[in-house]
């Protein structure tokens, strides 16, 4: 019995090696691809989201110090950033079927290790593997969503696939307290293992159509990539540990020095290569690409503000994750609405509009959060944090798509350069953004505390009255007047520290609002200029992309 091989039509062929083909699927199969894309996208986000949501619980469960907990985060971010540089070359060299099998195998192994072994060093290893797998699952989610869409809406599939990985961040914080209701942290590992098995079964039942292979690795990669990997590792370690042990430690500075030196050496090698992993010349000389990378980092900073801003203030005021369930439900809904709005309203002909709207929303929401006090509760942040979550996902897609269109218009091979640098900016940019926000809060807390102490004296009748009130409250536990007075002073210092922290967070909200307002004015002026002259900022690239796609359809199929 003879077997006929399906011949791909011109519009179904992959544009480059390592990418899938896009047959015209029946609608029922498209629905299945969409369901699997949702599962893979959420699982990709949960690999990092569950860790961030439960770092204090992981430290307590494994008996770790805060510094050891920081190294667990470093392990994930380091390998996540590293794999973003290699993803395209791995797919081009080994093909999609082997690539997917490696990812799924790694996902199962990682979650089995976390489920069965509860040890610091094993957790370090497992989180490193999670970084490798999580970064790879992002592209898998994108490809599955692209398969679910007809050709005319394939760009929206990219937005939906990658957006789901971002949506998982607030969703993980909503689900974590529900999983930990009975104080059994093993349930978190069980949930992650269950998601991994679900992904395994789904991709086995309905694989992604494969494309063609191409030799992509070169000998010079053995020098350039280890240098870049070492640089990423050093910078990630410095950004995470700096906010834990503080920035005045000498070894934190040396980590950044080593990271910058290694990255610069790798950049020098890549700059002079004929076929670079990331084309620095193109990045530096392409109009708008640096702006895309900056805005890509700002997305991570905006998402970090949700964890460091309102959620950080609630933590400082003594609220636990159990008391924040509704807060994270609201932010998850905001992020989901932002993602769906981005997908439904995306127009390449007006790619700057979502950025203008998003920066305006973040600015308004940040200014709405100003004026908090020690009695503030999550309900005070529902509306502004819903708005920030909406805006963060609303402008994620257009930023990503602008970069991809610019890369594909130049040549499909440039998508590797864009993906590597964009992934790097997302990971390292997010870490540095979180570190800066944390440092800002700490410094402003100290400033407010010093200002408060300068105007407070024990001889001041008002200060003395507060001490006496606190001392009287302790008389239920002790009749020692000296101890009660010391307790009153200690309690007053705690109250002043809390007020200083609240004031610091208000300063943060003002700063984020001003920064967002500046971005709104800059991007708004650019859009207004293009509208005034009747031009599209990526009009040339769209025409180049259409021409490149037409040429690819006319070429004979590659094996």
Automatic annotation (TrEMBL):
Gene3D superfamilies: MFS general substrate transporter like domains. GO terms for molecular function: transmembrane transporter activity. Its main location: membrane. Pfam families: MFS_1. It comes from the Bacteria. It is a multi-pass membrane protein. The lineage of its organism: Bacteria, Pseudomonadati, Pseudomonadota, Betaproteobacteria, Neisseriales. The chain crosses the membrane at residues 31-51, 71-88, 100-118, 187-208, 220-239, 251-271, 283-303, 323-346, 353-370, 382-401, 413-441, 508-525. InterPro entries: MFS (IPR011701), MFS_trans_sf (IPR036259). This is MFS transporter. One of its GO terms (cellular component) is membrane. Keywords: Membrane, Transmembrane, Transmembrane helix, Transport. It is found in: Membrane.
């Amino acid at each position: 019995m003879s077997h006929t091989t399906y011949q791909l039509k011109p519009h179904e062929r992959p544009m480059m090696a390592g990418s899938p083909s896009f047959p015209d699927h029946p609608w029922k199969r498209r629905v299945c691809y969409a369901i699997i894309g949702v599962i893979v996208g959420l699982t990709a986000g949960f690999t990092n989201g569950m860790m961030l949501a439960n770092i204090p619980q992981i430290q307590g469960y494994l008996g770790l110090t805060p510094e050891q907990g920081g190294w667990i985060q470093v392990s994930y971010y380091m390998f996540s950033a590293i794999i973003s540089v290699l993803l395209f070359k791995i797919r081009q060299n080994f093909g999609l079927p082997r690539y997917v099998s490696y990812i799924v195998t790694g996902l199962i192994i990682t979650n089995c290790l976390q489920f069965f072994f509860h040890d610091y060093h094993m957790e370090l290893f497992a989180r490193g593997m999670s970084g490798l797998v999580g970064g790879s699952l992002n592209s898998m989610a994108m490809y599955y969503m692209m398969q679910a869409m007809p050709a005319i809406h394939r760009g929206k599939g990219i937005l939906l696939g990658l957006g789901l990985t971002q949506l998982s961040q607030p969703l993980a914080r909503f689900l974590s307290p529900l999983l930990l209701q009975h104080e059994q942290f093993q349930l978190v590992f069980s949930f992650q293992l269950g998601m991994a098995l679900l992904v395994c079964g789904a991709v086995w039942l309905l694989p992604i159509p494969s494309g063609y292979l191409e030799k992509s690795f070169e000998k010079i990669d053995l020098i350039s990539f280890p240098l870049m990997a070492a640089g990423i590792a050093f910078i990630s370690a410095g950004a995470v540990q700096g906010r834990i042990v503080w920035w005045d430690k000498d070894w934190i500075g040396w980590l950044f020095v080593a990271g910058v030196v290694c990255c610069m050496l790798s950049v020098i090698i890549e700059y002079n290569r004929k076929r670079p992993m990331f084309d620095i010349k193109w990045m530096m000389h392409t109009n708008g690409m640096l702006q895309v990378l900056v805005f890509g980092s700002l997305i991570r900073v905006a998402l970090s503000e949700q964890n460091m801003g309102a959620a950080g203030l609630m933590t400082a005021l003594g609220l636990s994750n159990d008391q924040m369930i509704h807060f994270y439900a609201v932010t998850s809904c905001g992020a989901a609405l932002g993602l769906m709005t981005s997908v439904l309203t995306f127009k390449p002909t007006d790619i700057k509009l979502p950025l203008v709207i998003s920066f305006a929303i973040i600015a308004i929401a940040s200014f709405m959060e100003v004026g908090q006090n020690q009695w503030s509760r999550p309900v005070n942040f529902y509306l502004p944090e819903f708005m920030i979550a909406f805006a963060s996902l609303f402008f994620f897609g257009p930023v990503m798509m602008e970069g991809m269109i610019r890369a594909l218009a130049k040549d499909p091979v440039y998508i590797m350069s864009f993906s590597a640098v964009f992934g790097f900016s997302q990971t390292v940019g997010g870490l540095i953004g979180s570190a800066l926000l944390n440092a800002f809060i700490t410094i402003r807390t100290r400033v407010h505390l010093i200002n408060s102490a300068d105007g407070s004296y024990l001889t001041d009748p008002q200060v003395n009255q507060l001490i006496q009130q606190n001392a009287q409250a302790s008389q239920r536990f002790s009749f020692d007047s000296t101890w009660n007075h010391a307790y009153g002073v200690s309690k007053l210092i705690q109250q002043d520290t809390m007020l200083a922290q609240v004031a610091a967070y208000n300063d943060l909200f003002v700063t984020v609002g001003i920064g967002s307002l500046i971005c709104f004015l800059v991007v708004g002026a650019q859009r207004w200029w293009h509208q005034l002259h009747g031009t599209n900022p990526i009009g040339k690239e769209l025409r180049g992309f259409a021409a490149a796609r037409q040429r690819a359809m006319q070429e004979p199929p590659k094996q």
